[in-house]
Amino acid sequence: MYILTAKKDNDKIFTLERQMTREHLVHLRSTSQFACPQCGNPLRLKIGKVVTPHFAHIVLTDCFTSFSERESPTHLIGKQQLAEFFTRIGYNVEVEAFVPKISQRPDLLIRKNKSLYAIEFQCSVIPIEDIEKRNSGYRRIKIPTVWILRSPNNFNTSGVTLIKLSKFEQSFIGMDSSSNPTLITYNPSISQFIYFSHLVHITGTSFISKICTLSIEDQTFAFARVKPLTEIEQKQYWRIYQHKRLKFLTNRIFTSKFGARDKFLNDCYLQRILPEKLPLYIGFPIPGSQVFYHHLTEWQLALICWLSNQQVDLANVNESLIEAFLIEHCRVLDLKLAIDVIQKYCQLLQSINYNFTELVSQQLVSESYLFEHFHRFIVAKR
Predict the structure, then answer these.
(1) pLDDT tens digit string along 269-291?
(2) Alpha-carbon distances of 37 from 5, 61, 76, 206, 305, rounded to whole Å
(3) For residue 105, which of 66, 215, 278, 327 is within the disulfide window of CB 3.0 to 4.6 Å?
(4) ∠ Cα 69 74 75 (to 5°)
(5) Beta pairing, strands 174-175 & 159-164
(6) Domains (ranges, CATH) in the chain?
(7) pTM, rounded to two decimals
(8) Cα 194 to chain center, whole Å?
(9) 21 by DSSP, 3-state: which?
(10) Contact by Cβ (8 Å): 61, 41
């Protein structure tokens, strides 16, 4: 277990910093004793030529359980760079401070005036339950937490594009003050933040995103916000959405594993329409739709068919009805969030005056209207 902070000569907390010379560290190692601030056991100061200088327990202990992850060279360097960044902008920084009330050690604990934050720089994939457990601990003692993921490898692109985010990465998507779903990552190798902003879920792990970079020298805290999308970028979002939707629907018949038992294809048959001819309001991006395991078109068409069979007016669709639909027809990550997503979709259907007594093939809506809705409620709010 690599750590950067130790008790020096059983006295003050000592933190390794990048600007310390090798000669200085060699002298410290020969003249000082170091101990773990948490368990009190002796630490060895390791000064290699490849791995960042660090402390390690001479005898293995269970101290690592208070960290969010085991150390790696990338994590060590990133933690040091972030500590220097917060110090530079006026925060008092404690590296690997042990918080006894919750038995956790955030990578950084930063203070300024009455503000206190826990900063976690996450480089490895760990169970989402572990993330939630750590967040719960911080909430219990009322410390706001900021998670920063290590930037994915080989991400050299910028601008509007289609990206893939694992469920683990999706769990770190946050909202800025303008309700812009954003994932902030950091790459210690080039001292650069990468923003995946204005995230619009398409299907599974696929999102449309605007990617931009910011050097650590230009960063602020709270972290700098991304500018709103330009008109050209909004049209790029719309084109990518349409292309991915049509590609999915065109291939849907050929990729079916259920044949005559395929509910989506049966729903299309009952609506007397080919999948690729479905109107654009079916398969429409709705904020938070990554909570569904199904493609947008699948759960939205299933909902329309189910509500038609229930003979329910849109104005009377309530949480109980939505929950019944979800339990019967959908797999979701979170029932409460899925109910909220469906309520938003029902609002879209109401805005186009959808009539459940008619087939979807008889209820076409102009692309210009849907683009305007996409612009106002999906993209512009981001």
Answers:
(1) 999 999 999 999 999 999 999 99
(2) 8, 13, 18, 43, 62
(3) 66
(4) 35
(5) unpaired
(6) 2-149 (3.40.1350), 151-228 (no CATH), 234-379 (no CATH)
(7) 0.80
(8) 13
(9) coil
(10) yes
